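One thing: can you check what follows?
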Amino acid sequence: MASEGADIIFVTGGMSVDPDDVTPNAIRLAGAKVEKYGAAALPGAMFMLAYLGDVPIMGVPACGMFFKITIVDLILPRLLAGERVTRKDIVALACGGLCRACPECRYPNCTFGKGSH
């Protein structure tokens, strides 16, 4: 996919820490350099960001199916803007990394992910 011109690659499923979850290892075996696996952001703690050359690969955890806002909402806009998100950037999400799942979501006008800026 990267060799065919993909700007971003999304990988879903099997992102947990169970031995049967092969997705993180498959990303590594594809030759990608893992920037960070795991994030101090909920929902999205089992997120992975890797790069295959200059192409970002986002390992999206299952929370993407169950929550309106996840770590993907914090990282994707930065990648689309051409920013190279680093391990340090993802670690910074620990400050404000908990989505409160407010009854009426006001993201991005809330504290979720504010440590990333």
